[in-house]
Amino acid sequence: MKQMHITETVLRDAQQSLIATRMPIEDFLGVLDDMDKCGYHSVECWGGATFDSCLRYLEEDPWERLRTIKSHLKNTKLQMLLRGQNILGYRHYSDDTVRRFVTASIENGMDIIRIFDALNDMRNIRTAVDACLKAGGHAQGTICYTLSPIHNLEMYVNLGKEIESMGCQSICIKDMAGIMSPQECFDLVSALRKAIKLPIYVHTHATTGLGYMTYLKAAEAGAAGIDCATSCMSGGTSQPATESLTYTLDQMGYDCGVDRARLKKVNDFFVPVQKRFAENGTFDPYVLSTKADALTYQIPGGMLSNLVAQLKAQGAIDKLDAVLAETPRVRADLGYPPLVTPMSQMVGVQATVNVLLGERYKNIGKEVKSYIRGEYGKAPGEINPELVQKVLGDEKMITGRYAESIEPEFPQAKKELGSRAQSDLDVLSYIAFPQQAEHYFEVRDLKEALVSRYTIKEVI
């Protein structure tokens, strides 16, 4: 019987795609022991936007969250998504910080690190891959899948060969917008299997309605594993449902290794959680409908849910269709970068600004300017020359690896924090998200002071 590994995404990508990563640990702590008995290959539970969200919205220590999950998932591998040289933030960091962060992630419970670069510039994942391997973790190199006049099968196979040469133990095809058709998936998995020896994992979303079919063709082509979400948190901009895929694959002769009775217990647990987010408006039904137009504008799930939330907050949700139409035009101007963090945010924000101001590039975001300078790596295609001239003028574009020019952030950050940092992990949090980390430290200090005060009263 053929084997198919299942990665469950409800703790990370599913909730990131559907509810903008607003799920506190209390919402899933009670189901972790059952999840550990489901037979998943891995549970994606960290990385992506979870780190930022813990500090910014949930007043949680992301490192403590990781350790807590690990203490319950003793028999299941934990998996995270890492943005290469960007770590979990939105800019490049020094090699020293990348190595410290990756090592700390593994020391605090992480097993598999899926490492990608938003531009598929593999120079930007080498340090993270090397640090992961040296720390004893499983390094999964990633190809960000996208459609454009310059992205083709030959390009992707060459990226796969480059990933294999780095020493990665597996490779992921990351289709963040759900735009990879079943045939395209079959062709790509087949081509990669002919060219490299690494096991191939496929990640997609149900956004366009292709996801279920794409996964079946991935299996047919010999993929080692797929990413799924428990059914009440599946579909739309999330992943296809774990229960539906494993039910189907089992009948097709694949051993998914899961206990379907346990899968039901997990889903039953999350049903009231999902209902609560729906009732408070965080879970917008809009993200659940099939969006075939995404085959044109290629917006990934997390980007779409955040875009809806941001436009609502500005009272401009009526501009959503115009922003979606502007997005591919901005992407073309920027040389067809894959729409994955941080590029998805840059392109999405710039498209929104262009629409709201009624003039294209009247105001160009700081991050977009940094991208045009070359700080994020090599653009896949040619950036619009007029845009380059508007941003750079006579300044020359960076052609080397930008991270090599960045001084280690850790010593200065540790000095700035002083006694506010209770550990080196606090320093890493501060480097990644300074304002959000400081806010969390203030909240933590206040809570600890209150606990101390009540404890003293009890003793007296």
Description of the structure:
This protein has 460 residues and is an alpha/beta fold. Helices cover 50% and strands 10% of the residues. It contains 20 helices and ten strands. An eight-stranded parallel barrel has the order 2-3-4-5-6-7-8-9, surrounded by seven helices. A two-stranded parallel ribbon has the order 1-10. Strand 4, helix 5 and strand 5 form a beta-alpha-beta unit.
What's the layout of helices and strands?
Elements: E1 2-3, E2 5-8, H1 10-19, H2 32-36, E3 42-47, H3 50-58, H4 62-72, E4 77-82, H5 95-107, E5 112-115, H6 126-134, E6 138-144, H7 153-165, E7 170-174, H8 182-195, E8 200-203, H9 211-221, E9 225-228, H10 242-251, E10 254-255, H11 260-279, H12 294-297, H13 301-313, H14 320-333, H15 343-357, H16 366-373, H17 385-392, H18 410-417, H19 424-432, H20 434-459
Parallel strand pairs: 1-10, 2-3, 2-9, 3-4, 4-5, 5-6, 6-7, 7-8, 8-9
Helix pairs in contact: 1-13, 5-6, 7-8, 8-9, 14-15, 18-19, 19-20
